[in-house]
Amino acid sequence: AEGVAGVDLSGGAAPAAAPFTFTPAKKGETPAAAGSFGFPGGAPAGGAPAFSFSTGGAAAAPPGQFSFNFNNPAPAESDADADDDEDHDEDDDEDEGDGVEEFISSLPEPVQNAVRELGAYDDEIEELEKAFRAELRELERKYEAKYSPVFSKRAQVVTGAKKDFADGKKGDGAGVPDFWLRAMSNCSCLAANITEKDEVILKSLTNIESETLPESEGVGFRLTFTFAKNDFFSNEKLTKVYSMADAGDDPVLEKAEGTEINWSEGKNVTVKIKKKKQRNKNGKGTRVVTKTEPCESFFNFFSPPKIPGQDGEDVEELDEEEFEKRQMELESDYEMGVAFQERIVPHAVKWFTGEAEDDDDDDDYEYDDEELDEEDLDLDDEDELDEDPRQRSGGGGHHGHR
């Protein structure tokens, strides 16, 4: 009962049951060191992955990071088995609650009463925080409505539909060729996913829009890409929707969905076609077998990776390597989505001109004031220092998250 003042009671009241989550590794930290994919401290010694819960129903991620909610739907089973599983889940929830209750019960009775009162206050704060987030989303929608006419004029100038400008000067009707392609190419996380074949298609991109989802559709945002008529696909608009959990300051991705692209025959840049000659087993003649394989392309953005457990996937069948691959894909996909939402769409012209500063590469390194001399560098004659990565990507810009 002594030393109560030094006890961490940040949990407040007994935590509610939480969904499975996994948290991306910090920059410069290996997934094993980060305890990601639900492997605390790295992968388990063997057998099925050991998934962990976050306390309080939201993914526990450091500020600036995000997590992914995923469930592990069980296969069809008998009613008896289902009842057993349900009882087991309830037992797990009770065990978590019992741990907190056991601790509180170990305190002196007056302290117990105080802690329970504080827990009630914490519940009030959580409700107020939830209301605050709802009002903040409403404020975002209010200002998106104010931005909309300005963005509409921007789109008209880019496409050449608007030729009379505020300063009395005029355009020639051609607009600004390759406007969105160049803006995207100046943002490193987007440029890294654009191939030469993609560039041809992105020349026909006429507008990109971002909107906060209506409250009726949940928490998240929608990106809309509008294309001029082209030879590659019939879609005029492609959309990407990020659905998030209302989990406080740290975003928790629940689902990402993109438009299915209606590719023209032989124009799908997300796959490559391989032809191989195949001999007849009897040695009489050959035939050509055609296979399609996925390949790198920006347009894979509209076929986002699945969060483990979606569409009936059994999470326990995924090994650590598959989890790591999925995590990297999800992180990259979400980073691209946020880049469009917070950087490209609001300030596209600054990305087009290169005025915006893309400092993503610098985030991967820590600097100190110590100066290095030639002996510290210890370079051979044939060694060269890499040039600034931003010079390779053509400059660009970066505005922090709002």
Mean pLDDT across the residues is 74
Query: What share of residues are in beta strands?
Result: 5-15%
SSE order = EHEHHHHHEEEEEEHHHH
- Termini separation (Å)? 45 Å
Number of helical segments with 4 or more residues: 10
* Order of the strands making up the biggest sheet: 1-2-6-5-4-3
Structural class: alpha+beta
The general outline is flat
Biased composition (Gly residues): 393-402
Main location: nucleus
Protein name: Nucleosome assembly protein
Keywords: Coiled coil, Nucleus
Topology:
Layout: E1 21-22, H1 31-34, E2 67-69, H2 79-105, H3 109-159, H4 179-185, H5 188-191, H6 196-202, E3 205-212, E4 219-227, E5 237-245, E6 252-258, E7 271-279, E8 286-294, H7 320-344, H8 348-353, H9 374-377, H10 389-392
Parallel strand pairs: 2-6
Antiparallel strand pairs: 1-2, 3-4, 4-5, 5-6, 7-8
Question: Explain this structure to me?
Answer:
This protein has a 6-stranded mixed beta sheet with strand order 1-2-6-5-4-3. It has a two-stranded antiparallel sheet with strand order 7-8. The protein has a domain at 177-362 and 386-392: 2-Layer Sandwich (Arylsulfatase, C-terminal domain), CATH 3.30.1120. It has helices spanning 31-34, 79-105, 109-159, 179-185, 188-191, 196-202, 320-344, 348-353, 374-377, 389-392; strands at residues 21-22, 67-69, 205-212, 219-227, 237-245, 252-258, 271-279, 286-294. The chain is built from 10 helices and 8 strands. The model is unreliable at 1-65, 71-77 and 374-402 (pLDDT under 50). The radius of gyration is 27 Å and the shape is flat. The chain is of the alpha+beta class and 402 residues long. The two termini are 45 Å apart.
